[in-house]
Amino acid sequence: MARTVYCEYEKRETEGLDFVPYPGELGKRVFAHIGKVAWAAWLAHQTMLINENRLSPRDPKHRAFLEAELEKFLFGGGADKPAGYVPEA
Asked: What is d(CA 82, CA 86) in angstroms, rounded to the nearest whole number?
């Protein structure tokens, strides 16, 4: 049987993640309060942030930026798109 959580992003009961997806306390919080659909939405948003802003996950400043965006996106009511972002038609 799948694990369920009340997803803070979707504001409903949903299927929980299978493992802690991020290190540290933030990862534990994500595991406890975020569902699979919300995590997939974050991964897509993170990919866009990395590509549009030319970020490197190896750079500590870029990692700190992405971690802050992760918290805003999943727990803070959403995050902004990168400056100048234009979605594909």
From this structure: 9
